[in-house]
Specification:
This protein has helices at residues 10-19, 24-43, 48-91. It has 92 residues and is mainly α. The chain starts with 9 loop residues before the first helix and ends with a helix.
């Protein structure tokens, strides 16, 4: 899985807190703490490329199953027609 890059602007966050009346040391500490808390979550995000890769892999794995299902279904239909034909011949 590729790493998702999502920027958290600690300076902007800190400046917003300061503008709201929070003391500079507290605003900066909160910005660092929030950035540290978000970092592991951001690493676990899947990118569009990750999702596309998974989709293609799953489609590839499902393709043979579609053919197997079609083959089994055709066999079942043939078996049912054979049984109906046998029952019809036995009843006549």
């Amino acid at each position: 899985m590729t790493s998702a890059v999502l920027a958290f602007d600690t300076l902007k966050f800190s400046d917003s807190l300061k503008a709201a009346g929070v003391a500079a040391p507290q605003a900066e500490a909160q910005a660092r703490a929030l950035a540290d808390a978000l970092a592991p979550s951001l690493d676990a995000l899947a990118t569009r490329a990750d999702l596309r890769e998974s989709e293609l892999r799953l489609r590839g794995e499902l393709a043979p199953m579609k053919w197997m299902l079609a083959t089994v279904s055709a066999g079942m239909v043939a078996l049912v027609f054979s049984m109906v034909g046998l029952l019809f011949r036995l009843s006549v």
